[in-house]
Design brief:
Elements lengths: L2 E4 L9 E7 L6 E2 L4 E6 L4 E5 L4 E6 L6 E3 L3 E6 L1 H8 L15 H5 L7 H9 L4 H7 L7 H15 L17 H16 L2 E9 L1 H18 L6 H14 L5 E4 L2 E4 L5 E3 L1 E2 L4 E2 L2 E2 L7 H17 L4 H4 L4 E5 L18 E5 L3 E7 L2 E15 L5 H16 L2 H5 L1
Parallel strand pairs: 12-16, 16-17
Antiparallel strand pairs: 1-8, 2-4, 2-7, 3-6, 4-5, 6-8, 9-19, 10-11, 12-15, 13-14, 17-19, 18-19
Helix pairs in contact: 3-5, 8-9, 8-11
């Protein structure tokens, strides 16, 4: 029996992928462990190896095709299996069976070649409809293909021609997958967003004081992101429901806090995961975020790098963003959006002063997270960021 090469399960939030390219062609020998195809999803590009040695006897989906998780995309076997696979095995009249297909039973009364019958069956064509189109004629493969083409033409939507100042781009590859995933999330979760204003003045000063030391001693660029991650970990201690997932009629409470970091590569949005955030310090988190971000932009993330996230953090402040209502990254239940840190006039003890301020926007799934829980979680994050020294030793 030929061995099947299937679209792998890359995580709960990935339902399908696009075949980017085949590295082997039909008939080529392959060795176990040799990369034969590259698949592209909304999050990562994955190289799929052969699980057995043999010959690539059949490619079932060409480059550019979209395939579902678990779908067979190719067969690997031996030379004899290739010949057997390609040999036609359908006759003009049906063999005896308890319940023959209607079109096979009635084919005895039609003038149809065995090859045309096989093509009709493989394409789900009712030969009675074909016979109506060609009354009294012998039906061959040409008539079957003409019938299929005629039906396809009727089912095509009316062609829309772009205006002179328009350019039409196909919704394909990772952009299409991301569009479908975001739409599914918006239609599934009962999304609510709450916002907090955070005084980042002390953290701005602390970062300025430590930035050169971190670069010299640890070879990392100190940003606000690891501090926000640590603060999120502190919030989850008090409100673990923010770190949970809804799976059918069950609430999955995750013991570890694994934060997905949204990374914009310019072509697609990737969300590599920093694991066990509560057990790591600012230095380790800074190093890991820097490494994952670099691999995301280089396109070298592994499948393990993007799996297992329990809550997501996205930093739009680097692009100047102020406020947003982010979409939850399914199957998680919460996502925290951090905006630009900027100097603003604020009132302190009756006086107008200049402080470094930032907005945090928390979107959460109201099906399992109550509003009071979300607001209090966000206040814990805010309180820790406004007293950043404790995060260095947490």
């Amino acid at each position: 029996m030929p061995a099947e090469i299937q679209m792998p399960n890359l995580g709960l939030s990935i339902a399908e992928g696009t075949i980017e390219k085949w590295l082997k062609k039909e008939g080529d020998p392959v060795e176990k462990g040799e990369i034969i195809v590259v698949l592209m999803t909304e999050k990562v590009t994955v190289e799929i190896p052969a699980e057995v040695s043999g010959k690539l006897i059949k490619i079932l989906h060409p480059a550019g095709a979209v395939v579902k998780v678990g779908e067979t995309i190719a067969l690997i076997g031996e030379e004899g299996e290739q010949k057997s696979l390609q040999a036609p095995s359908v006759s003009a009249t049906p063999t005896s069976s308890p319940a023959p297909r209607p079109e096979a039973r009635e084919s005895r009364d039609l003038k149809i070649s065995p090859l045309a019958l096989r093509i009709a069956q493989e394409n789900g064509v009712d030969i009675r409809e074909v016979a109506t189109r060609f009354p009294g004629q012998k039906i061959g493969k040409k008539e079957i293909f003409d019938f299929i083409e005629s039906k396809n033409q009727k089912s095509k939507p009316a062609e829309v021609h772009p205006a002179a100042d328009e350019e039409i781009l196909p919704l394909t590859g990772p952009i299409r997958v991301m569009a479908e995933h975001m739409a599914a999330s918006a239609q599934t979760a009962a999304r609510v967003t709450t916002i907090a204003e955070v005084d980042m003045t002390d953290l701005v000063g602390l970062r300025a004081a430590l930035r050169e030391k971190f670069k010299k001693d640890y070879s990392v660029n100190l940003t606000f992101v690891p501090f926000v991650m640590k603060a999120m970990g502190e919030g989850v201690k008090e409100f673990p429901i923010l770190n949970a997932s809804l799976r059918k009629d069950e609430i999955v409470m995750h013991r570890g806090v694994h934060i997905g970091i949204a990374v914009d590569t310019g072509q697609k949005l990737l969300v590599p995961v920093v694991r066990d955030v509560r057990g790591k310090g600012i230095v380790d988190l800074s190093r890991e975020v820097q490494q994952l971000t670099g691999r995301a932009k280089e396109g070298t993330l592994s499948v393990q790098d993007i799996q297992g996230g329990t809550i997501t953090l996205t930093n739009a402040g680097v692009f100047g963003g102020l406020l947003a209502t982010p979409i939850i990254h399914q199957p998680q239940s919460a996502i925290l959006w951090m905006g630009k840190v900027m100097e603003m006039p604020v009132v302190r003890e009756g006086q107008i002063v200049i402080r470094s301020m930032m907005y945090l926007c928390l979107s959460y799934d109201h099906r399992i997270i109550m509003g009071a829980q979300a607001v209090q979680f966000l206040q814990i994050v805010k309180r820790n960021l406004e007293n950043p020294a404790v995060l260095l030793v947490a």
